[in-house]
Amino acid sequence: MRIRTGWGPTAVVVGGLLVTGCGGGGGGAADDGSAAGRPGTGRYPVTVTDCRGARTTFSRPPERIVTSNASSLELLLRLGAGDRVIGTGFPPGPGTLPGALDAQGREVAVLSRSVIPKEKLLASGADLYIDTFAGMRMNGVGDAPSEEEFRAAGIKHIYLKSTACAARREGAVTDLSAVEADITALGEVTGTRAKAARLVDGMKDRVRAVRKAIGNVPEAERPTYFFFDYDAGTKQPTALCNRQVAHAVITLAGARNIFADCDTTYKQVGWEDVLSRDPDWIQLGVRNRGGRAATEKAFGEARRWLETNPATKGLKAVKQGHFLRIRSERTTIAGVENADTVERIAHTLYPSKVG
Which domain, by its residues, includes 103? Predict the structure, then answer.
């Protein structure tokens, strides 16, 4: 669809994401319908780009949205657009989402426990699919529809670029600007831009406070940090590399990711690689188990494995008991809670500086 030019197009580039709307004139300034973030008329048309720069234009807010996983679902719930989500893949487990979002998330139809099968996605009746994976196969599962198939089914297809495009980016990700751009873009697309702006401002305020508190700590004196992805298996560790959003979280919190020299999102390494880098702190990477008690038990299992395994029990962090119990989702999945995790890590590493 062509963009209207009656009032002159206004284009904003945020973190590599192009958002185009109509500027000027009172009619184009409408925004959220209420403080709760209900969609108003918004500023349309809105155009967003994918990882390769292909453009998708919206002339009105989508009404039937399918999300690829819990990350995009959570963002829509936070924006107040959750009532327009008709299905999701990789649904959040009970207790994964915070507060009232948990109950709302469980009301969304589950189209698949993993990648949504192509036929089911195309027949879902959606007018928008929000994709976190950029068409990649997750653990060898799934066959993504082509753009032609999406168009034939009447489904617009956009990405969470902070994760879907991460492996394509040049250079390490050291801030949350891509996550903030995703939130801004979803606010533009769904007509909840004011709520999106409040979420982004809140994230920036929390990160800015941490950065100010630890700003005088020299880089060489910042502690080294290993994200131990316990759920990915212990036989061969998975390195969290510098294109993953968690690398930005760790960096902003004042730590040094021991695999910062790994130029991708994740990579299989050997325990000898971890031993040679001997981290000061280890985050126990455990995903939600459906309840606090079960999740805490999993944290305990991850710690005991490190403390009893001959290959890891001599690590500095293990001997000193320097462990952080922060769920994987809060660290590795792009979202508002990334800023909360920056605060939590920084408070643990710098308790006299970060309250």
Answer: 9-200
For residue 42, what pLDDT band results from cuts at 50, 70 and 90?
low
Angle among Cα 281, 244, 139 to the nearest 5 degrees reads 105
Contacts of 238 (CB under 8 A, 6+ apart): 229, 232, 266, 267, 268, 269
**Strand 266-268 to strand 238-240: parallel, antiparallel, or no bridges (unpaired)?**
antiparallel
pTM: 0.86
Residues forming a β-bridge with 290 = none
CATH number for position 268: 3.40.50.1980
- Label residues 139-150 b or e (16+ Cβ within 10 Å = b): eeebebbeeeeb
What's the helix, strand, coil split of the chain in %, to 5?
Answer: 40, 15, 45
Taking the mean position of all CA atoms in its chain, how far away is CA 162?
A: 7
Same domain, 62 and 189: yes
Alpha carbons 197 and 79: distance in angstroms, whole number = 10
pLDDT tens-digit readout, 253-311: 999 999 999 999 999 999 999 999 999 999 999 999 988 899 999 999 999 999 999 99
